[in-house]
Amino acid sequence: MTQRIFLFCLLFTSGPFALFSQWEDVSLNENLEVIDVHFWNNTTGIVCGVNKIYKTANAGMSWTTTFDAGTDDIFFEDVETIGNNIAIAVGKNITTNKSVILRSTTMGSSWVNIPVNDNVFFTDIYFLNNNIGYCTGGSNALYKTVNGGQSWQWITGQGGFGTESVFFTDEQTGYLCGGGPDNASMVKTTDGGQNWFPLDVMGVNFLRSIYFTDNLTGFVVGWGGGIYKTTDAGVSWTEQLVATMQGNLKVTFTDTETGYIAGGISNTGSILKTENAGVTWFETAPAGTKAMISIDFPSDQVGYACGSSGTVLRTNNGGTTSIGNLPTGKNNFNVYPNPVENLLTVDGGEQPITKLNLYDSNGSMIRSISCSNPLETMDMASLPAGNYYVTVYGKTGTSAYKVVKIR
Asked: Is 237 a member of any domain?
């Protein structure tokens, strides 16, 4: 069945226009994996990379090493910023087989060790507010702090699977997710972590990150690129799509509608964005981005993503795409009539059209539509007059075009 969507195109004699995202390179000057990133505000934040912690106070323009274990024995997995000046970093000392928790009260400029008599490899931290926080890792282990990370109390260690991520929607209701190479596992508590019960998530690969936008609506992402959503506090989950990414994944939201997923493997990175609570996701990472591992937004528009080879990226406009003047492919799609008032056709010839992304004149995506036919008819009658841009995806490549809508 021919899909009808709003679209309008005008081909320029100079060829297609490229659309590329507004992520700037503010990477470390070191070739190491940057495991996690968190910021107190738009300019001041920290990242951890293997056995080091780095700080910036100028939006990533320069980075200072504020903790160096001096050995590869310590491996950091997560950092978190709290309030105006507190930070927590967690991981494990591989040589001593002891858990590691560091705390800073100086916005990451200096760190002190917080003793924890355990051998858990901590993987994730989540703070419900400035005082109450949770730390997880190992076989479903969970620690809790009620004083901003000054001390931690063991809550549970029921075992069963390796835990990768923790999230609490209130002090009683929380979630842990993880699993193994061939299974996805998630559990939920409704009594502050004293008891847990399993949740049925359809993913077959282990889960990497979980995030809730309210008490009912949550998202979890898995190693194989799966993205799952619940609207009933985890009772049921629906698969939104399987993203074309592998490896490390991190999901976060800036509001109930706008979210991001960072991931990738080797030299292929991805930063997906949704503007409609996960109904559709679109790529925002610049071409050639290396594997992404984590992402954080200190505000609605300013965000940072980190990954392999010392990579740190920054956006000042929510990762929104902008329009450039470069060709994007050799596909010859026929788009007519132009100018267009009501109905427009996109003709791929013998090549099926697989997706259409529509952008306004500011480069903000309006919608993303999946297609399957070589001929797509589009109704644009209700859209206001003006200039737009559309990317047309085919089986062999992608082209982008400027669009004019009249009346």
From this structure: yes
